Amino acid sequence: QVQLVESGGGLVQAGGSLRLSCAASGSIFRINVMGWYRQAPGKQRELVAAITSGGTTNYADSVKGRFTISRDNAKNTVYLQMNSLKPEDTAVYYCNGHARLVVPYDYWGQGTQVTVSS
Q1: How far apart are the first and last CA of the chain?
Q2: The CA-based dihedral angle spanning residues 72, 13, 16, 64, taken in that order and rounded to the nearest 10 degrees
Q3: 85 to each of 22, 68, 91, how far by Cα in Å?
Q4: Residue 42 has what pLDDT?
Q5: Is residue 22's pLDDT more than 90?
Q6: Three-state SS string across 48-88, please?
Q7: Does 34 have pLDDT greater than 90?
Q8: Rg of the chain's alpha carbons, rounded to an integer?
Q9: Coil, helix or strand for 18?
């Protein structure tokens, strides 16, 4: 069993920065890929950034150059540093852990709200 808990969301003005954290606990050895998804009102959930156990990263085109995903294995935590925030970044951000098991499985955090004002 894996628990993912996000923190760091809030209200920020356009051009500002936030850092999201995702703390993992439980059977975290199951997780091969960690990622951040977001869902804005009226839009589908989309992948923002992902990082593999080997350190390979992937970003949505809309956030390249502005967001950085990283992980601290000693603290079992994944971060999303968000700079130069835009109003269109407003969404609920969800931490995701993908387990490559006999039957693949995804773990999800509860989500944290990020609101970027004009």
Answers
A1: 41
A2: 80
A3: 19, 12, 12
A4: 94
A5: yes
A6: EEEEECCCCEEECCCCCCCEEEEEEHHHCEEEEEECCCCHH
A7: yes
A8: 14
A9: strand
